[in-house]
Write a structure and sequence with these properties.
Strand order of the largest sheet: 6-3-7-10-8-9
CATH class: Alpha Beta
Largest sheet: 6 strands, mixed
CATH architecture: 3-Layer(aba) Sandwich
Radius of gyration: 21 Å
Number of domains: 1
CATH topology: Aminopeptidase
Structural class: alpha/beta
């Protein structure tokens, strides 16, 4: 008799009336029950970087918010417990709000707050440059050594958006310096890049496929819902991060 090798995630073999039936085991997502805080960088007043396409103002703040909303939905579908920091004017207030919301999460499902720390905080941003409408690239920012595995995982996942990694920036920036949280800032692309702004407007149904410039539909840029794709890549980066932590890779969370 030939020896059968099953190359599957996990299989249980059940014998019923002389027949062998393979039943796939459900393997939980690395994101299941993780408490993830999201921050949509900037607000409607201090809106960050911006671009104007066909008379339409595209602000970093609105792009950040749309990605966070899409990301929350996708992470929740993977079993994560997601909180979104309030859009307060100071970064410290935003982090304090995220921490309070994480503590109020009922992970155990018993109707009471578990008073746990956020497992990670991700502050979503999109970069800007004033003198080059074609410049693009992907960057992440971290503060502490223990933030670095998260920043690296997010950078690796997001870089296909632009095809150009600008690496990880280490320093005391914004949301990453407060409350001793494992955190990172993502700058997935430059909203000052005209193709990025056009594809964002296309994602919002504010430009048709015909109105999007030809150069924004070839090569690294493809005609797509840019908001949804970035959110999917953010999910992949977070999933890979938590998977590496559970398997002993990377630094230990603070």
């Amino acid at each position: 008799m030939k020896k059968l090798t099953f190359l599957a995630l996990a299989l249980a073999v059940v014998m019923t009336t002389g027949n062998f039936v393979a039943v796939a085991e459900t393997i939980p997502s690395p994101l299941a029950n993780k408490i993830i805080a999201l921050d949509a960088g900037h607000d409607d007043v201090a809106y960050g970087a911006s671009n104007i396409i066909g008379g339409v103002l595209v602000t970093e703040a609105e792009v950040n918010w749309d990605v966070v909303v899409a990301l929350e939905s996708k992470l929740t579908a993977q079993g994560a417990k997601v909180v979104i920091a309030g859009r307060y004017s100071t970064r410290r207030d935003r982090v304090n709000d995220a921490v309070a919301k994480c503590a109020a999460v009922d992970v155990a499902g018993d109707g009471t707050a578990d008073n746990k720390k956020c497992d990670v905080l991700v502050s979503v941003h999109h970069n800007g440059i004033t003198d080059n409408p074609t410049h693009d690239g992907t960057l992440t920012i971290y503060t502490q050594k223990s933030d670095k595995p998260l920043a690296q995982s997010l950078l690796t996942a997001l870089t296909p958006l632009t095809g150009d990694s600008e690496g990880m920036l280490n320093g005391g920036y914004g949301m990453t310096v407060y409350k001793n949280l494992v955190s990172a800032i993502t700058e997935a692309y430059y909203i000052t890049n005209d193709c990025e702004a056009e594809l964002y407007l296309y994602s919002k149904n504010q430009l048709t496929d015909i109105q999007v410039s030809p150069q924004c539909k070839t090569g690294v840029y493809i005609l797509e819902n840019r908001i949804e794709r970035e959110a999917d890549l953010q999910v992949a980066g977070l999933s890979n991060y938590f998977d590496s932590q559970s398997s002993g890779g990377g630094g230990k969370p603070r």
